[in-house]
Amino acid sequence: MSATIHEVSTALGTRSRLGWAAADSWTMTRRELAHWARQPVQVVVGLVFPVMLLLMFGYLIGGGQGVDGDFKAYLVPGMLAMTMVFGLESTMLAVTQDLGKGVIDRFRSMPMTSGAVLVGRSVADMLQSAVGLAVMLAVGYAIGWRWHEGFGSFLGAVGLLLLLRFAMLWVGIFLAMVAGKPELVQAVQILVWPVGFLSNALASPASMPSWLGAIVEWNPLSATATAVRGLFGNPDAGGDSWAATHAELLAVAWPVVLVAVFFPLAVRRFRDLSR
After folding, report:
1. What is the rounded distance in angstroms from the CA atom of residue 254 to the CA atom of residue 176?
2. pLDDT score for 109
3. Which of 199, 195, 202, 164 is CA-nearest to residue 75?
Protein backbone atom coordinates (compact mmCIF):
# COMPACT_ATOMS: atom_id res chain seq x y z
CA MET A 1 0.00 0.00 0.00
CA SER A 2 2.77 2.42 0.95
CA ALA A 3 4.58 1.60 -2.30
CA THR A 4 1.46 2.45 -4.27
CA ILE A 5 1.06 5.77 -2.44
CA HIS A 6 4.71 6.56 -3.12
CA GLU A 7 4.28 5.80 -6.84
CA VAL A 8 1.18 8.00 -7.05
CA SER A 9 2.88 10.88 -5.24
CA THR A 10 5.92 10.55 -7.50
CA ALA A 11 3.72 10.64 -10.60
CA LEU A 12 1.85 13.68 -9.30
CA GLY A 13 5.14 15.37 -8.48
CA THR A 14 6.44 14.70 -11.98
CA ARG A 15 3.26 16.08 -13.53
CA SER A 16 3.47 19.13 -11.27
CA ARG A 17 7.06 19.80 -12.33
CA LEU A 18 6.17 19.39 -15.99
CA GLY A 19 3.18 21.67 -15.53
CA TRP A 20 5.28 24.38 -13.91
CA ALA A 21 7.93 24.02 -16.62
CA ALA A 22 5.30 24.39 -19.35
CA ALA A 23 3.70 27.39 -17.60
CA ASP A 24 7.06 29.11 -17.10
CA SER A 25 8.06 28.45 -20.70
CA TRP A 26 4.77 29.86 -21.97
CA THR A 27 5.28 32.98 -19.84
CA MET A 28 8.69 33.50 -21.41
CA THR A 29 7.23 32.88 -24.86
CA ARG A 30 4.55 35.53 -24.27
CA ARG A 31 7.27 37.94 -23.18
CA GLU A 32 9.15 37.41 -26.43
CA LEU A 33 5.97 37.76 -28.48
CA ALA A 34 5.14 41.01 -26.68
CA HIS A 35 8.33 42.45 -28.15
CA TRP A 36 6.72 42.18 -31.58
CA ALA A 37 4.16 44.81 -30.59
CA ARG A 38 6.76 47.02 -28.90
CA GLN A 39 9.32 46.75 -31.71
CA PRO A 40 7.28 46.50 -34.93
CA VAL A 41 10.02 48.09 -37.05
CA GLN A 42 12.49 45.35 -36.13
CA VAL A 43 9.91 42.69 -36.99
CA VAL A 44 9.08 44.31 -40.33
CA VAL A 45 12.75 44.67 -41.23
CA GLY A 46 13.30 41.00 -40.42
CA LEU A 47 10.48 40.06 -42.79
CA VAL A 48 11.37 42.51 -45.56
CA PHE A 49 15.12 41.83 -45.77
CA PRO A 50 14.87 38.27 -47.17
CA VAL A 51 12.13 39.43 -49.55
CA MET A 52 14.50 42.13 -50.86
CA LEU A 53 17.22 39.51 -51.38
CA LEU A 54 14.79 37.28 -53.28
CA LEU A 55 13.65 40.10 -55.55
CA MET A 56 17.21 41.36 -56.04
CA PHE A 57 18.59 37.99 -57.10
CA GLY A 58 15.47 37.15 -59.07
CA TYR A 59 15.25 40.36 -61.09
CA LEU A 60 18.40 42.50 -60.74
CA ILE A 61 21.16 39.89 -60.68
CA GLY A 62 19.44 36.75 -61.99
CA GLY A 63 21.39 34.28 -64.07
CA GLY A 64 21.79 31.21 -61.96
CA GLN A 65 25.02 29.71 -63.25
CA GLY A 66 24.66 26.07 -64.17
CA VAL A 67 20.86 26.13 -63.86
CA ASP A 68 18.77 25.03 -66.82
CA GLY A 69 15.22 26.27 -67.22
CA ASP A 70 13.40 28.80 -65.04
CA PHE A 71 15.89 30.32 -62.62
CA LYS A 72 13.13 31.47 -60.24
CA ALA A 73 12.04 27.85 -59.77
CA TYR A 74 15.60 27.12 -58.64
CA LEU A 75 16.10 30.37 -56.71
CA VAL A 76 13.01 30.46 -54.48
CA PRO A 77 13.66 27.18 -52.61
CA GLY A 78 17.30 28.19 -52.19
CA MET A 79 16.30 31.56 -50.77
CA LEU A 80 13.84 29.89 -48.40
CA ALA A 81 16.68 27.76 -47.01
CA MET A 82 19.02 30.75 -46.86
CA THR A 83 16.43 32.73 -44.90
CA MET A 84 16.34 30.00 -42.27
CA VAL A 85 20.10 30.44 -41.78
CA PHE A 86 20.22 34.23 -41.87
CA GLY A 87 17.55 34.38 -39.14
CA LEU A 88 20.35 33.35 -36.78
CA GLU A 89 21.42 36.98 -36.44
CA SER A 90 18.16 38.23 -34.89
CA THR A 91 18.29 35.38 -32.37
CA MET A 92 21.81 36.30 -31.33
CA LEU A 93 20.98 39.97 -30.99
CA ALA A 94 17.90 39.32 -28.81
CA VAL A 95 19.83 37.01 -26.46
CA THR A 96 22.80 39.37 -26.08
CA GLN A 97 20.50 42.32 -25.40
CA ASP A 98 18.86 40.41 -22.56
CA LEU A 99 22.28 39.46 -21.23
CA GLY A 100 23.52 43.05 -21.43
CA LYS A 101 20.49 44.42 -19.57
CA GLY A 102 20.70 41.79 -16.86
CA VAL A 103 17.23 40.50 -17.73
CA ILE A 104 18.30 36.87 -17.78
CA ASP A 105 19.99 37.22 -14.39
CA ARG A 106 16.73 38.53 -12.93
CA PHE A 107 14.81 35.63 -14.43
CA ARG A 108 17.31 33.18 -13.00
CA SER A 109 16.73 34.60 -9.52
CA MET A 110 12.97 33.95 -9.76
CA PRO A 111 11.26 30.71 -8.75
CA MET A 112 10.89 29.37 -12.28
CA THR A 113 12.20 26.47 -14.30
CA SER A 114 15.77 27.29 -15.31
CA GLY A 115 15.29 26.27 -18.93
CA ALA A 116 12.07 28.28 -19.42
CA VAL A 117 13.99 31.31 -20.68
CA LEU A 118 15.64 29.32 -23.47
CA VAL A 119 12.44 27.46 -24.33
CA GLY A 120 10.48 30.72 -24.52
CA ARG A 121 13.13 32.24 -26.76
CA SER A 122 13.12 29.22 -29.06
CA VAL A 123 9.31 28.99 -29.35
CA ALA A 124 8.94 32.69 -30.14
CA ASP A 125 11.78 32.49 -32.63
CA MET A 126 10.21 29.53 -34.39
CA LEU A 127 6.86 31.34 -34.59
CA GLN A 128 8.55 34.34 -36.17
CA SER A 129 10.42 32.07 -38.57
CA ALA A 130 7.14 30.41 -39.58
CA VAL A 131 5.63 33.82 -40.32
CA GLY A 132 8.69 34.84 -42.32
CA LEU A 133 8.59 31.58 -44.25
CA ALA A 134 4.91 32.13 -45.09
CA VAL A 135 5.72 35.63 -46.36
CA MET A 136 8.55 34.32 -48.53
CA LEU A 137 6.34 31.59 -49.97
CA ALA A 138 3.68 34.18 -50.81
CA VAL A 139 6.20 36.48 -52.49
CA GLY A 140 7.68 33.55 -54.42
CA TYR A 141 4.22 32.61 -55.63
CA ALA A 142 3.57 36.23 -56.62
CA ILE A 143 6.68 36.36 -58.83
CA GLY A 144 5.77 33.14 -60.62
CA TRP A 145 7.27 30.32 -58.56
CA ARG A 146 5.16 27.18 -58.22
CA TRP A 147 5.48 23.78 -56.60
CA HIS A 148 4.49 20.77 -58.69
CA GLU A 149 4.11 17.97 -56.16
CA GLY A 150 1.31 17.09 -53.74
CA PHE A 151 0.39 18.91 -50.55
CA GLY A 152 2.14 16.25 -48.48
CA SER A 153 5.42 17.00 -50.26
CA PHE A 154 4.82 20.70 -49.71
CA LEU A 155 4.41 20.15 -45.96
CA GLY A 156 7.50 17.96 -45.96
CA ALA A 157 9.53 20.75 -47.57
CA VAL A 158 8.26 23.29 -45.05
CA GLY A 159 9.10 20.86 -42.26
CA LEU A 160 12.70 20.50 -43.48
CA LEU A 161 13.05 24.28 -43.68
CA LEU A 162 11.80 24.75 -40.13
CA LEU A 163 14.01 21.90 -38.93
CA LEU A 164 17.05 23.73 -40.32
CA ARG A 165 15.86 26.92 -38.61
CA PHE A 166 15.44 25.08 -35.31
CA ALA A 167 19.00 23.79 -35.52
CA MET A 168 20.42 27.20 -36.40
CA LEU A 169 18.40 28.69 -33.55
CA TRP A 170 20.37 26.72 -30.97
CA VAL A 171 23.62 27.54 -32.71
CA GLY A 172 22.66 31.21 -32.40
CA ILE A 173 21.65 30.96 -28.73
CA PHE A 174 24.96 29.33 -27.84
CA LEU A 175 27.09 31.77 -29.84
CA ALA A 176 25.16 34.70 -28.36
CA MET A 177 25.90 33.58 -24.82
CA VAL A 178 29.55 33.12 -25.77
CA ALA A 179 29.68 36.63 -27.29
CA GLY A 180 27.81 38.10 -24.33
CA LYS A 181 27.43 41.61 -25.75
CA PRO A 182 25.38 42.97 -28.68
CA GLU A 183 28.42 44.77 -30.09
CA LEU A 184 30.25 41.44 -30.43
CA VAL A 185 27.40 39.89 -32.43
CA GLN A 186 28.57 41.66 -35.57
CA ALA A 187 31.89 39.85 -35.39
CA VAL A 188 30.14 36.50 -35.05
CA GLN A 189 27.72 37.37 -37.87
CA ILE A 190 30.63 37.23 -40.28
CA LEU A 191 30.54 33.46 -39.85
CA VAL A 192 26.94 33.31 -41.09
CA TRP A 193 27.50 34.78 -44.55
CA PRO A 194 29.98 32.14 -45.80
CA VAL A 195 27.52 29.41 -44.77
CA GLY A 196 24.81 31.17 -46.77
CA PHE A 197 26.72 31.95 -49.92
CA LEU A 198 28.96 28.85 -49.99
CA SER A 199 25.86 26.85 -50.89
CA ASN A 200 23.77 25.91 -53.89
CA ALA A 201 21.07 28.43 -53.00
CA LEU A 202 21.97 30.74 -55.88
CA ALA A 203 24.05 28.67 -58.29
CA SER A 204 24.69 25.05 -59.14
CA PRO A 205 27.86 23.43 -57.74
CA ALA A 206 28.49 22.14 -61.29
CA SER A 207 29.36 25.69 -62.33
CA MET A 208 32.06 25.95 -59.63
CA PRO A 209 35.59 24.57 -59.41
CA SER A 210 35.46 20.92 -58.39
CA TRP A 211 36.99 21.49 -54.94
CA LEU A 212 34.60 24.34 -54.18
CA GLY A 213 31.61 22.43 -55.54
CA ALA A 214 32.40 19.54 -53.17
CA ILE A 215 32.42 21.91 -50.18
CA VAL A 216 29.15 23.48 -51.33
CA GLU A 217 27.40 20.12 -51.72
CA TRP A 218 28.20 19.16 -48.11
CA ASN A 219 26.93 22.46 -46.72
CA PRO A 220 23.87 21.84 -44.47
CA LEU A 221 22.06 24.67 -46.25
CA SER A 222 22.72 23.01 -49.62
CA ALA A 223 21.30 19.72 -48.38
CA THR A 224 18.09 21.40 -47.27
CA ALA A 225 17.83 23.47 -50.46
CA THR A 226 18.31 20.41 -52.68
CA ALA A 227 15.84 18.31 -50.68
CA VAL A 228 13.26 21.09 -50.72
CA ARG A 229 13.61 21.54 -54.48
CA GLY A 230 12.95 17.84 -54.93
CA LEU A 231 9.87 17.95 -52.70
CA PHE A 232 8.56 21.02 -54.49
CA GLY A 233 9.24 19.45 -57.89
CA ASN A 234 11.59 22.29 -58.83
CA PRO A 235 14.89 21.87 -60.76
CA ASP A 236 17.76 21.02 -58.45
CA ALA A 237 20.72 21.10 -60.85
CA GLY A 238 22.42 18.71 -58.44
CA GLY A 239 25.31 16.47 -59.32
CA ASP A 240 25.74 12.73 -58.96
CA SER A 241 27.80 12.88 -55.77
CA TRP A 242 26.69 11.06 -52.62
CA ALA A 243 25.73 14.34 -50.94
CA ALA A 244 23.60 15.40 -53.91
CA THR A 245 21.80 12.07 -54.30
CA HIS A 246 21.13 11.73 -50.55
CA ALA A 247 20.10 15.33 -49.93
CA GLU A 248 16.89 14.45 -48.04
CA LEU A 249 18.86 12.24 -45.64
CA LEU A 250 21.41 14.99 -45.04
CA ALA A 251 18.64 17.60 -44.69
CA VAL A 252 17.51 15.67 -41.63
CA ALA A 253 20.89 14.47 -40.38
CA TRP A 254 22.65 17.85 -40.39
CA PRO A 255 20.05 19.66 -38.22
CA VAL A 256 19.85 16.69 -35.84
CA VAL A 257 23.63 16.74 -35.42
CA LEU A 258 23.66 20.52 -34.89
CA VAL A 259 20.93 20.31 -32.27
CA ALA A 260 22.66 17.38 -30.55
CA VAL A 261 25.85 19.44 -30.29
CA PHE A 262 24.64 22.98 -29.61
CA PHE A 263 21.53 22.36 -27.49
CA PRO A 264 23.47 20.85 -24.56
CA LEU A 265 26.22 23.43 -25.04
CA ALA A 266 23.64 26.24 -24.84
CA VAL A 267 21.99 24.75 -21.74
CA ARG A 268 25.34 24.27 -20.01
CA ARG A 269 26.43 27.79 -20.90
CA PHE A 270 23.14 29.16 -19.56
CA ARG A 271 23.62 27.33 -16.24
CA ASP A 272 27.17 28.66 -15.96
CA LEU A 273 26.22 32.31 -16.48
CA SER A 274 25.84 33.06 -12.78
CA ARG A 275 28.93 31.17 -11.65
Report:
1. 21
2. 66
3. 202
